[in-house]
Amino acid sequence: MMDTQKIRKDFPQLKRRINGKPITYLDSTATSLKPTQVLAKMNEYYTKYTANIFRGIYKTSEEATAEYEAARAKVAAFIGANKPEEIVFTRNTSESVNLVAYSWGKGNLRSGDQVAVTIMEHHSNFVPWQQLAGEKSLGFRVWGVDKDGTLNLKELDTLITRKTKLLAITAVSNVIGTINPIKEIVRRVKKLNPKCIVLVDGAQAVPHMRVDVAHWGADFVAFSSHKMLGPTGVGVLWGRMELLEAMPPFIYGGDMIKEVHRDTTVYNSVPHKFEAGTPHIAGVIGLGAAVDYLSVFGMDNVRSHEKEITEYALEKLAGVSGLQIIGPNDPEVRGGVLAFVMKGIHPHDIAQILDEDNVCIRVGFHCAQPLHEYLAVGPTARASFYVYTTKEEIDALVAGLGKVKKMLG
Amino acid sequence: MRSWPDLVKSKRCWADMDMYRDIILDHYKHPRNFGTLSSADAKASEYNATCGDRISIEIQCQMINAKCQIKDIRFSGEGCAISVASASMLTEKVKGMKVENVLKLATEDILVMLGTELTPSRTKCAVLPLEVLQKAVVCLGL
């Protein structure tokens, strides 16, 4: 059980009042709020041991390096990676996916090969593959969803062929919340084509449930710090060591080299080969603190809390006439994100009227326009939940939707 | 036409929701000049991919004293209350206007027409119909 009221005290933004009213933050899928523990840890770097990492032969630099690498070890343990070196720090999930598309894609994809994605991908795990397919004349295959917003695993039999070099798939939809059975999908993909690489977008999974990359059996997993209580500007790419070692660098520059001569360069080892230039040191250390913070609860408890809130929200929103939930209705296969539409009312107007009472939701296509087109629903409104979300906040949302209907219905 | 201060002082349907003033809600719920023309001289449409608003405008023109004027206008599409109300009010505003003046209209004119302050993201919704109309005028190739 999680003590939400106690947790809320850790988040300074929840104490803020705008026009005398509290903030009901229901947009954690876009980015999460940050606890004081994370902010304090980042501030510590900026006030106690600001120094560049790796090269300094003095105490504060050694301290900064140790904290930076400790964060890598924490992230590795958090997702069940074999070793810290399998964790590459990037700027965000998009950059992590692009790293694979450019670096792994460069050496491994040739004209005539196929790459596959699902229709529920965030643009960050869709556009890189769509564009690479165009550039390299690859087949670009898209796995659709059933009416209930879930994937039909039988379709893998036709989706994955011996020409399929990669499947890019999200673990949890950032719109309809569908939790995909990654372990089973990877098992089937590898059976159909052992050489097919599976890249999992974990941006909506790692912050909200227990993720074990070894259990999944995938080859790459990408996610972002800022969606899991950490700062913006830090992303993670986990990859299997033998894959990372075989891949060329994505960005050239400082830190990623071992030796540089007039005409040749020897690259640094993994993961440093992929971390050119001074990284977001404070951000990475902050992510480490976010991992510590979440680890105190245990990710199974985080998931339980969100499932309870989602169940409550599904029930309450079902009582709003003219409101339609998009995606699975079963909280067992749905993460804490609810997209919905209201008959005859544009989502922008919903969000605008809710904002009068500081109820923050997101509207539009949520960086998943192909999914909206596929489902033929137009733009949607989306409420999403996290460790600090309460049932009272769901009630505030429902009350706000009542106002929306009164005004525009 | 009412002046800006009058508009600001006008009755509001929601205590602190300037954005959804009566006149905007009225145009949203009962859009004027909605539909298509049987014979249009020019048409244009625009799509706002961030919010899914889609507005099309058709115009019919006439020459008066060697100046081209908007004789009739229709709009269609779907959007939020702000973009629909803006389109509806704009069609009324420009009927009979010289096209050269239509091209001079700017964001400020739209905000004055709506009589409300908008956040930057909603300003895009409000200005979309003007962009479509100006695109249609350019299509006339005058």
Automatic annotation (TrEMBL), chain A:
Residues 24-397 form the Aminotransferase class V domain. The keyword Kinase does not apply. Gene3D superfamilies: Aspartate Aminotransferase, domain 1, Type I PLP-dependent aspartate aminotransferase-like (Major domain). Its EC number is 2.8.1.7. It comes from Candidatus Gottesmanbacteria bacterium GW2011_GWA1_48_13. Keywords: Pyridoxal phosphate, Transferase. This is cysteine desulfurase. NCBIfam families: sufS.
Automatic annotation (TrEMBL), chain B:
InterPro entries: NIF_FeS_clus_asmbl_NifU_N. GO terms for molecular function: iron ion binding; iron-sulfur cluster binding. It comes from Candidatus Gottesmanbacteria bacterium GW2011_GWA2_47_9. CDD domains: IscU_like. It comes from the Bacteria. Pfam families: NifU_N (PF01592). The lineage of its organism: Bacteria, Candidatus Gottesmaniibacteriota. One of its GO terms (biological process) is iron-sulfur cluster assembly. This is SUF system FeS assembly protein, NifU family.
